[in-house]
UniProtKB/TrEMBL annotation:
Gene3D superfamilies: Vaccinia Virus protein VP39. Its EC number is 2.1.1.171. Keywords: Methyltransferase, Transferase. This is 16S rRNA (Guanine(966)-N(2))-methyltransferase RsmD. PROSITE patterns: N6_MTASE. Residues 1-22 are annotated as: Disordered. InterPro entries: DNA_methylase_N6_adenine_CS, RNA_MeTrfase_RsmD, SAM-dependent_MTases_sf. It comes from the Bacteria. It is an enzyme of class 2 (transferase). One of its GO terms (molecular function) is 16S rRNA (guanine(966)-N(2))-methyltransferase activity. The lineage of its organism: Bacteria, Bacillati, Actinomycetota, Actinomycetes, Micrococcales. The gene is rsmD.
Length: 188
């Protein structure tokens, strides 16, 4: 069972697609958002949730006070489930789901201004993450002091961070590693 850990929708359960996604475990989400809350980057933030799946990461951010979440998911069934989850937990007014590939979404102009927090949880065997990270540092996508978090299998190794993103540590939980990077400048 997947559920929101904390915030306005804390304890509410989420449906997950029967196949094709790997929802972030509750333990990892709790640790991730504990760090992000400590850094002060969630409340009032514009959040981009790439490879959203069921929406667990983006919905957790919205539950904890993010002003807006854009959840990008290529699989149409998973995107529909993400929309349904947002409505079911009462966060649909702050969560917009875009059914497209991350690369395609980042190929356009950033809608609504830069993002303060990016959560990228691609399938562990997916290629192309380097190109996605490179697109994020193009003008307009990231606010000064933005935080980017990439979730990968520990065996995958650190992502290749493009110029404009400075590595800011990692944390491993079982087979899952969270990699952190930040942009230059003062946070929101």
């Amino acid at each position: 069972m997947t559920r929101i850990v904390a915030g306005s929708a804390g304890g509410r359960t989420l449906k997950v697609p029967p196949a094709g996604t790997r929802p972030t475990s509750e333990r990892v989400r709790e640790a991730l958002f504990s760090r992000l809350d400590h850094l002060g980057v969630v409340r009032g933030a514009r959040v981009l949730d790439l490879y959203a799946g069921s929406g667990a990461l983006g919905l957790e951010a919205a539950s904890r006070g993010a002003a807006e979440v854009v959840a990008v998911e290529a699989a149409k069934a998973a995107a529909a489930l993400c929309r349904a989850n947002a409505a079911q937990v009462g966060l649909a007014d702050r969560v917009r789901v875009v059914a497209t590939r991350a690369e395609r979404y980042l190929g356009g102009d950033p809608p609504g201004g830069p993002f303060d927090l990016v959560l990228a949880d691609p399938p562990y065997d997916l290629g192309g993450l380097d190109e996605v990270l490179a697109a994020l540092v193009l003008p307009g996508w990231l606010a000064p002091g933005a935080v980017v978090v990439v979730e990968r299998a520990g065996r995958s190794g650190e992502p290749v961070w493009p110029d404009g993103l400075t590595p800011d540590g990692e944390k491993t939980y079982g087979d899952t590693t969270l990699w952190f990077a930040t942009t230059a400048g003062d946070p929101r």
